[in-house]
Amino acid sequence: MEIKLFCIKNKSFVFLMVLALTLVAVSLLAPYLAPNDPLKSNLTHTLQGRSAQFPLGTDQLGRCLLSRLLYGARTSIKLTFCLVAIIFTVGTVIGTMAGYIGNRVDTLIMRISDVFLAFPGLVFAIAIAGVLGASLMNVVIALAAVSWPKYTRVSRGLVMVDKEKEYVLAAKLGGAKQYQIILKYILPNIIPALIVMAAMDIGVMMLEISALSFLGLGAQPPTPEWGYMLSEGRNNMQTDPGLMIYPGAAIFITVVIFNLLSDGLRDILDPNKVY
Predict the structure, then answer these.
(1) Is CATH 1.10.3720.10 the classification given to domain 63-269?
(2) Which residues, other chains included, contact 111 with Cβ-Cβ below 8 Å and sequence gap of 6+?
C-alpha cells in the first residue's frame, strides 16, 4: 500500500527512475544487445549509412556505430558511477572527521580543501591528467582529486551541527564510543543530503569525463567511449554528422535523465534543503 501511494505521488520520479535503470541495464547488457563487434574495423564498410547489418551506419574505420554506442554506454556510465562513489566516500569520511574531531585536524583538512578549491576544477583536472598520462583510469583519478573537497565541506558543516544536538549529547553521556556516535547517530542524518549531492554530480561527472576524453586525455583507441567517439567523429562532421550526433545525443539524454532524477530525489530525501 505504501509503495502504491509513493508511486501515485511521485509519478515523474518513478518514470525517471525507470529510464535511469533502463540506461544502466542497457550498459550492462551491451555484449548481448550489440549487433556487431564494436572494435572490429573493416575499411570496405567505411562511413556506410543505416542498414540491416549496421542500424546506425559505420564510422570512419568501418565499425558498427550502434555497437560502439552501446559499449560506450557501458564505459561512460560505469566510470561515472565509480567516480561519484569515490568522491562521495572520500569526501564524506574526511569531512566527518574534520567536523567531529575539530581543532587542528579540522583546520588542516579545511586548508587543504581550500588549496584544491582555489583552482578551476576542470582546468586542474586537465593538468593532473596531462601529468599522469592519457587513460580512463587517470581521468578518474584527476577528477576525483579535484572533486572531493565539496563533499568534505558539506559533510563537515552537517556534522558540526548534528554533534551538538541533544540525542548526540545523550549518547555521549550514555557511554557510547566516538565511532558508535558517528555511525549510529550522525551519519544516518547527513547521508540523505550527501546522496542528493551525489545524484546531482552524476550528470556533471559524465560531462567532465566526456570532455577529457574529447581532448584526448581519457579513452584511447579503440576503446568505445562517448566523449572519445565525439572526438573521432569531428573530422567527418560535415560529410557524416551522425558520428557526432549519436554520441552527443547519448550524453545529453543521459545527463538530463540523471539531473531530473536528482531533483526528484532531493524532494523526497531532503525536501527542506535549498540547493
Answers:
(1) yes
(2) none
Q: Where are the domains of the chain?
A: 63-269
pLDDT of residue 9 exceeding 60, the answer is: no
Query: At 228, which amino acid appears?
Result: Y
Spatial separation of the C-alpha atoms in residues 228 and 231, rounded to whole Å: 5
pLDDT tens digit sequence for 201-258: 998 999 999 999 998 888 888 888 999 999 888 888 888 888 899 999 999 999 999 9
Distance in angstroms (rounded) separating the CA atoms of residues 253 and 248: 9
In the beta sheet, which residues pair with residue 64?
Answer: 58
In the chain, the percentage of residues whose pLDDT exceeds 70 is 95
pTM of the model: 0.88
**Alpha helices, H only, 136-241:** 136-162, 166-173, 178-181, 187-214, 226-233
133 Cβ partners below 8 Å, 6+ apart?
none
CB 259 within 8 A of CB 15: no
